[in-house]
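The pair is listed for reference:
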Amino acid sequence: MIFEPTVLAATMPDLTVFQFNIVDNIFSMTVATMGAAALFLFLSRSTVDRVYQPALLVSGIVVSIACYHYFMIRSSWDGAYELLEGNYVGTGAAFNDFYRYADWILTVPLLMVELVAVIRLEKSKARSLLTRLVIAAGLMIALGYPGEVISSPEGWGTRVMWGALSSIPFFYILYVLWVELTASLSSQPPAARKLIEVSRLVLLVTWAVYPIAYALGGTEAALTAKAGGAVDPSGIVALQVGYALADMTAKAGFGVLIYFIARAKSTGQDGASAAGSGAYAGA
């Protein structure tokens, strides 16, 4: 195994003004998106039935955590570079990659909680499902991080190994969620059923971005750039942009979708109001 000294942070390659700004701007947009989503979800809790309010609370916590970490990620990014002779070059301060993984280790299990909470499975089944998903989420992130911090082309094979190991719980989570979401459709009201079908596709499409970004950041050229080599650092830029876009969709976008599912279910079966009446059968 190849572990560089930069376990918590990574040096970054020289960037053009465009490359630096596209990453900086996407980080800024992510902070704003997460913050706006947090306000929306917290303020919208009173518009859904009480049994679905915990799902919105957890969704709001997820985007709040992400908002804080992306603020720190952007600060670290800006601190790692300075403009010199028309290009952005390293200041000597390392870019902290650990903020993102610290975010994921907290928010990904909570994403599982908010989804199971809004579907409202039978308690024993929900408990078993959450246990499996949270363990798998922890393994997925823990196995991916050692590959993420590799910063030399000689470590390419090791990065691929860690990425492959991380993919096992990754695909397990997607499989279990797809099966459980599909199985729950028959017990959902018509309006919520359509939204849950959409949520399945959102999960698949959004989560697919993560391994793609991981792969782009792990090419030989990207690792050479990360090690300070004079090559095109587009893979590093693509990794940062890809992760940020995926996080905005998977957390803020999915949180808003959770709200619409909760709102649809709060109107009761076939549109009849269920507010204040507790969970209806099968919710």
